Fold Flagellar protein FliT.
Amino acid sequence: MENQTERDILTIEKEIDEAIESEDYEKLNTLLDEREKLLPKLTENELREIYQRDQHRMKVLEEKMKEFKETAIKMETGKKMVQSYFQTEDKGQEIDRHG
């Protein structure tokens, strides 16, 4: 039974890393819930190893979040530029019609 639990946790850990890499956060949440059920069965050493891997994962997730924020800012800036362009175009058409 001990080996089965260890293999399961290693499989889950691998899938957690894959979910982070592929940005499948729904699957990540499911895997974390699944892993949580196994934690009480693990040794102190195994728990430390998981904690260390989680510290690295947090850094990866923070970097991805930073990238998402930068992308969102760029998209918002682009949206404002497009809106500004169309407002300018509308004003130009108005002047042509009246002028």
Q: What stands out?
A: The chain is about 90% helix and 0% strand.
